[in-house]
Amino acid sequence: MGQVVGPSCATPTTLGANRYAQFFLRPYYQSTTMVEMEKNANKKSKRALLLLNVIFLAIGACGGPMVMRLYFLHGGSRLWLESWLETGGWPVTFIPLLIAYFRRRRKEGSPAKLYFMGGPVFAAAAVIGLLTGLDDYIYSYGVDRLPVSTVSLVLASHLAFTALFAFILVKQRFTPYSINAVFLLIVGAGVLALHSSGDRPKGESNKEYFLGFFMTLAAAILYGFVLPLVELTYKKAKQAITYTLVLEIQLVMCFFATLFCTIGMLINKDFKAIPREARDFELGETTYYVVLVCSGIVWQGFYLGAIGVIFAGSSLLCAVIIATLLPVTEILAVIFYKEKYTEEIHNPSNASQ
């Protein structure tokens, strides 16, 4: 039987080797611990950032359609104006950007960068902004023709298109559950299209209603393409993607979207029509301008939340959150605008029987 050498039986050579290992390996273990702590801190900060942007997204996704519908219900009729307001609040983004800059300036002094966006990212943000401007107009057309509850149901299909384009553009992985959910959303939107007469606004023809429906569906398709395109921009950018850079991308996107809608307003002479429309607004001239300002601010929260969720999560997560919030918008429409669900909307399975 061999003798087992315990700690008490350690030789001077063994003790020297242990001390040598502790002396030289201690910095390695300490640095490893610090890296792990930094990773945990980054995860916590990213979760907090995700939660903050989900709140912004929720306010915009629920409040934006409600304020827009309020404009149309009480005498507003300028589609390009409402499209413009969806991104017209872009100067609000200067507030966090300036705060971040002055903080950098205080720490780094005069060498602090005024902005981080490079040329390729700027170009990509500008293109996405123009697509967003087109999407804004198409969406405004649908909201003008359809009740908020119907618009929300049709827009639920954007999750399917986001999933498709996320798979193509950013190689998003899927599970059987997500595929099944996407399929059910498409079927639900199709049933609504076939059984839609009950929720049509009074005095609106079949042609106008179905045109509003398909324009809303087109808006869902286009925005389903825009969300993964933003994520692709993050992935392909040849620079570090920070939240400050994300805010700069948001600023450029909304600026070009607003520029697109401004051209439409000039062609349609909407700027000249605003004072007259304000005087004729059913809730009063002052309320008219309050509605416009609130619309711009609330929609800016939506876009800020959307790109923030994509930064902290993914484009598919953003689409899932938007789809999850749609029933809240429907409930708000029932409460505030007294919209009624038809049998088809409340229970689509009955419509096919």
- Number of E strands: 0
Tell me the β content. Answer: under 5%
The whole-number mean of residue pLDDT values reads 82
Q: What is the C-alpha radius of gyration, as a whole number of Å?
A: 27 Å
Ends apart, CA distance between termini: 85 Å
State the helical fraction. Answer: over 70%
How many alpha or pi helices?
14
H/E order of the elements? Answer: HHHHHHHHHHHHHH
The description of the largest β-sheet is: none
How would you describe the shape? globular
Number of domains: 1
Structural class: mainly alpha
Contiguous runs where pLDDT drops below 50 for at least 5 residues:
1-5, 343-353
Protein name: Probable purine permease
Subcellular location: Membrane
Membrane topology: Multi-pass membrane protein
InterPro entries: EmrE-like, PUP_plant
Q: How does this structure look, described?
A:
The chain is mainly α and 353 residues long. 79% of the residues lie in helices and 0% in strands. The chain contains 14 helices and no strands. The protein has helices at 12-73, 79-87, 94-108, 119-145, 148-155, 158-170, 176-194, 206-236, 243-268, 270-280, 285-312, 315-337, 343-346, 348-351. It is globular. Its main location: membrane. The chain crosses the membrane at residues 49-72, 84-102, 114-134, 146-170, 177-197, 209-230, 242-267, 287-309, 316-337. This is Probable purine permease.
Summarize the entry for a quick read.
The chain has 353 residues and is mostly helical.
